[in-house]
Structures are given as C-alpha cells and as structure tokens.
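Summary for the funding panel

The consortium committed to producing paired sequence-structure records for every protein in the target list. Below we show the first two records in order, beginning with the earlier of the two.
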Amino acid sequence: MNKTSVFLIAAFFTVNGSLFSQTDELFQNSKPASTNIVGAEYPRIDAQRRAIFRVRAPEAQSVVVGLGNTALTLGDDGFWTGVTAPLDPGFHYYNLRINGVEVNDPSSETFFGSGRVMSGIEVPEEGVDFYLVKKVPHGQIVSFWYFAESTGETRQAYVYLPPDYMKNNDKRYPVLYLQHGMGEDRRAWANQGRTNFILDNLIAEGKAKPMIVVMEDGGIAAGMGGARRPAGAGTQGAGPGQGQGQGQQAQGARPQQGQGQPPQGAGPGQGQRPGGPGQGPSGMPSFWDGFGSVIIKDLIPAIDANFRTLANRENRAMAGLSLGGTQTYQITQANLDKFANIGIFSAPFGFPGVETGYNGLLLKPEEFAKQVKVFYISMGSKEGAGTGRSIHEQLEKAGIKHVYFEAPGTAHEFQTWRKSLHGFTQLLFK
C-alpha cells in the first residue's frame, strides 16, 4: 500500500469521526446506539443513559437535537457535538433541527410514529432483555396483502409466524390481532414494539404458546393529520425491519434494529397523541371508521384462509395500545363471538363502563369469566390513572375476573407496551 492510499484511508475515517473520536473520553466510555445505521459510531449511549451526538454540518448556524432540546457545539473540524441529559430507558423518537429546520439524523434508522417518519434511538434498560435478539429459533414477519370488500381496497398486514411454522405443515396455530396507537400504523408493533423477538424468546423459554400475530392498520395514523390511504394503495417499501436472519420480510423492507417509544423533546412528548377524534358513522372516531368491519368481515377470514389457524374464538385474541386499546374495547364488545381473549394497553378513553360494557355482560361476572378467558388491563406507572388504573378499580369493585399490570417507571410509551405484550402473551391459549 502506497503513502497516498494510507493518507486517503486515514482521511476517510477522520471525516467520519472515528479516528478523532477514539481519543475522546466520551467516545471511550460509551457505545453506539443499537438503532444506528450500519457502521455509524454516533449517536452513542453512555453508562448514565446520556446520548452523545456528533453531526457534520460545517455551514450550519445552529444544530439542536430534539431530545430535551439539546444544543450542539460546532468544532473546528465542522462537526457539531453535544450530550443530552440522562434519558429514560427504552426507545425515543427524535429529530435534528438544523438552522431551525427539522430533519432526520442520517446516522440513525427511521420509524413511522407521531404521524411522520422520525429518527429513533434505543436506550438500554439494565437487566431487561426480553425484547432483545437472542440465540433462539426465530420466527418471521411476512407481508400479507388482501382485498377488503368492506372498504373496496387492497390492504396490507404484517404477520408474525412462529419459529416452527414452516417446519410443521400439519400444525395449526392460535391468532393474536394486535393494534397500534394513534400516529402509528401497521409497522409499529413490528418495528418499535419488537413483537417478533418478544415472542421468539417466550416460545423458546416455554412461557408462551406458539402463535400467529397479525398487525394491521387500524386507520389511526390519520389522527395525527396524515392522509387516509387511497383505495388500492399500500405501503410497499416500508415495512418491519427486524428480519435479521429470520426469513421473509415485508416487500421492500430494509433491516432495522429499532423499537419505538414516544418522542421526548420532539413533537408530542411521551407519546401523547394530540387531536380530538370526531365520531364516524359506526360510533368509532372518524379517522378509523370502518376498521371494525374490515377486521371481522375481511381480515379474519383472509387470515384463516391463507394461514394455518385455529379458527375459533377460544384460539383468537385481540389487543391494542393507546387508541388501539380503545379500538379493542369497541370491536371485541360487539364481537365476543369472535374473541375470547382481550388485552387493553394504556387505552386513554372509550371504556364502556361496568354498567354498559360488553352489552351488560360485565354485570354478570361469572358469565363474563366463562366467555372471556383472558381480560388484561395495563398501563405505565407514570401515566394518568384513566389509561388503566381506574378501569382496573372498576372491574375489581364489580368482581370481574381480570389481570392488571402496571409497568414501574414507564409512561405512555413502547417500553410500557413491550412489557404489556410480554405479560399478556404468556397468559394466552392455555
């Protein structure tokens, strides 16, 4: 290798911050975030759960990271650097503001949440690994397209198939229909929630039954101001990104190692999804009106026809987070002949109440327990009581059999919902 080659290689790494940063104390005492694109050294996470940023923008007048509105400082090398305050464990959406203009971080993977595509950063939680990639048999997430007669459109769902699905062609599986929250879409549970890894690990440990998980668009991304999907349209090229070595991915999807907690310091904080929903013809908020018909008349039949399912209510569950939890209340209440297992994660409103809920069945605790095998309510301890605790108190007072889980130290965020899914799926189909 000649001197010119050596010089060019050294220059390349210097421009990318590697050689410079290795001598830096912050660099030495931190690690690249798991949500970085391949090869990116920044952002980094240190032992205090601070995020360290290094962004090249030599012509910029200001660079701010939307995590606590952390202002970066320009160095002589053209790189802006800075350190955030300690962050809560879990996933955070964020963006960069360069000269006041919001842009995504080119060094981080992106995720659809809060009604738009944003960068994401994962902050490890000490001692918590149930949603991490482990050396266990892995299932796969596949892209499934079907035509919905109810809405006259071709729709897409993401379907998790357990590790042994392709190995045993005679086996049939129970199904969980899993809904996202406001400002998210069908990608949320696959990407941000790490659903496949949670199930892979539980199944390998013998703590959960192998099951199929269906993740569809409940129509509530539009609640953040996004446009409704036109008839015949889908989301080709933007799919779940957790397929590292797991088989087929959604069409056009790229691998991502991301998960999703609501943004802090950028857009809606802690996942609060603003905007008051109007009422549509079905009584559901207008921006998801019609999904109740889709799931019952179109999605369930399509899943049962194309996958090896146990097509009965005892082997079917529905769960959702935030407004997806509200959807779950409303859809299961009208269709207990289809679902015997229900999970409500941080539902902000919509619980029908004991007096009227489930068409009066809540007034008959013994009968309700016969029909609903698992009734799971959860929330984060930092959330408002109305997202779960008050519902739990109503049910407990009325003597209605249910399971209540409150995640310690978490808010309205995916760290709450990952833990909720982890607990809920261990109870199913026993």
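The next record, for a separate protein in the list, is shown here:
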Amino acid sequence: MLLNDGNLQALTGGLRLKIRIQHPGVHERTDRGGSYWFFRYWEDVLQADGTTKAIRKFNTIGPSKGDNRLTKKQAEVERDKFLAKINKPTIQEKVADGLALFSRMVEKYRAAHVEAEVAGRFLLAKPTREKYVIHLEQRIVPKWGTRRLCEINPDEVQQWLFESCESWHMMNDLRGIMSGIYTKAEEWGYWPEGRRNPISRVKIGEKWTVRPERILTEDETVKVMARLSDPNLLIIETALATGARISEILGLTWQHIDLKDGVIRIVQRNWRGDIDDPKSKTSKRPLTLGNLADRYRVKATADKAQPDKWVFARTDGSGLPLWDSGVRQALKKAASAEGCDFPGLGPHSLRRAYITWVQEAGGSSIEASKMAGHSTVRMTEGYTKIQLNRQADLTRLIQEKLASVGEKQPAVVQQEEANRTRPWPPA
C-alpha cells in the first residue's frame, strides 16, 4: 500500500502530524562530568488524547576535550545524523511508529488473514473464522477500535479481559486475536520492527472454567438414547462408540465406510456445510463400529447408498449433509426430559464420555489418544473425567488394600510405634 497524506488520515483517524525542520546550534558545556558538545531540539510526542505535543529535549554528542574529543565540525555531523529522521520523517515511518488506528488493522487482519483464501482454500477453518469474526465485531473493535496501536496498554487489556469474559477460553481467544493483529501489523510495516508486542505482557493465569465439566453417566446415557430416533440416534451412538467428533461423523460419505469389516475412515469433516480436512493430521484415522456395523448395513440398503453420497443427508431432497445444530437440539431435549441436562452438554461432551470410558475400561492414555485423534496424549488427559461412582470404587479398592496390608503386619507397625517413642540417644 502506497501511503500519502490522504490515506494516512484514514489510517490514523484524522491525526495531522507536524513536521518540524530543525537545525540547532552545537554548543560546548563544561561541568563536573567534563567538557562535551550538546544541542537542544524539539520532538513531537503523541499524547493519550491523540494529539501531539512539542517537547524540548537535550542531546549529548560527545567529548569536546580529551583523547577522544570531537571537533565542533565533527559534532555538527553527528547532530545532523541524529536529526535526519526527525527532520525528514516519511509517512511510512510515522505509521510504523504505531499511529495507525487499531480498527484499520482489524480490517486488514480480517481481509488478509481471517477470511483470506489461498489456492481456493481458506487459511482458517470455518468454526475458527466464525468465532474470530464474532469476537472482532462484538468485543474487540467496540472496545479498542478508536485507539491507535501505540496507545493500547497491556494493563488495560488484562483488566478488560477479566472484567468482561465469562470463561478462561474466551479470554484466551481474545488475547490471541489481539496479539495476532500486532504480529501482522509488524509484518505489514505498521508497528516498529522488534518492538515488543504489548499483548505478550497480558497474563490470564492458569486454565479455569465457570461451568462444571461433567459427562453423562452410563445410566443417564441409556435413558437419553431411549428418547432419540434416527438419524440423531445413530449419530450419537456412533460418537459414543468411536469417540469421533460430530463434524467428522457428519462429514462421512458412503465411500468412507467399510460395511464388510465395520470400519469408518475419518478423512474430512463437515462444519455447517463447510467441508475441509480434519482438525489435525492425527485426526485422519480408521475407527471400528463394533455392533453398530449392522445398523449401518441396514441404513445403506434403505438409502440405496452411493459412494459419493452423504451418510447423514438432509431429507429435503437437497442432497446436502446435516448440520450439528439439529443433533445438539435433539440431545438437549432428550436430556432435559430425563432431568439430566447440564451446561455444556452437547455432541462434544459425548466425546469426553467416550475417552473417559475407554480409560475406565482399562485402555491406556495412548490408546485413547489414538482413537480420539488427538495430537498429544496430554490433550487426551484433559478430556478424561472420573465419575463419582468410579471414584468411589477406586477409593474403596485403595482403602481395602491398605487395610489388608495393615492386618498382615501388626508386629511391624507396633515396632515402628515403639521406635518413635524410644528416647534418643539411647542410654
């Protein structure tokens, strides 16, 4: 982008920059620190209200006496080098000092990153794009849009996040987006190269949540599923049997299902009509259907399945795949009828249930991670929830083991107790 006075006004919200041509004299001064050359000059400093104020400053050039002394002419040369940028600032340099409006950077960030396409594919997945746009339009721009890049203070941002966000995840998202805007601003020449990103100083603490992260118990799951009908029932059964993400299940076509061996292959996902690759490389994986294979065989026959047709398609004749919203509504309605609805219940909570049950059944974290398609085992561990009844079982087992050990070794325990009460050193 070629900058001129007109678009500079747009980028900076109408700020008019003074350019003061200066050629001050070089003077010699002697004090307790020795003798040296100096000059005074004016510098326009940006104020908090967006105006500029001329501040007179003092600059020391170098010694005027001694072994490393400078002649007056040499001092004048050094003065001119120092004033070159101040006397002849380019519009680009002024903008690069951070004078551009934050809202203008948001516009560029949204067009060149959030909604950008490369070779016919978006840089960001549809869920991420939608989330970013909502955060930018509803939260970030209303708060910070009229401020310049150089005016946004990390302390202000941190306070705003803690006061306005309802969850740690929202704080993390907002901080990440704002930090990304500054990163791109530096890349595009609107933020000084090498100057610290102010959002990097914003701290939000350890991960926390305002809602309880729980899963349906086995008993609740059976009751909820009894209230569902196909296709929602089969979708939820598949999620519970495989741990697949709802977007991965809704992205299945018949060519991805091996009806003979009862295996599905996750190779793509469908997020509200946007078809793209799974979340990560490890998300591309085969999953066994177990006893659900027969259900899929029946469905394939009933649907007259074709390889390129959606397994879970709309019934309006459009040939388009289902969205997750219908599944979510059906699940919430069934859970509410059984009195076991809770904040956060949705298709993704079924994935938490699957991962938890796999490990409760004796599966390792590595096995659960592979089946879930997580990139790391640590991520899988964050999904694992130990239910209260399972906790009670484990606690009972530990207590019984400790009790049995104590019964077998009374003499040892008594001896240790005697040792603790014996005086030291011995008489």
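Regarding this second record: The chain has four domains: 18-88, 99-201, 218-383, 391-421. The CA atoms of residues 35 and 248 lie 76 Å apart.
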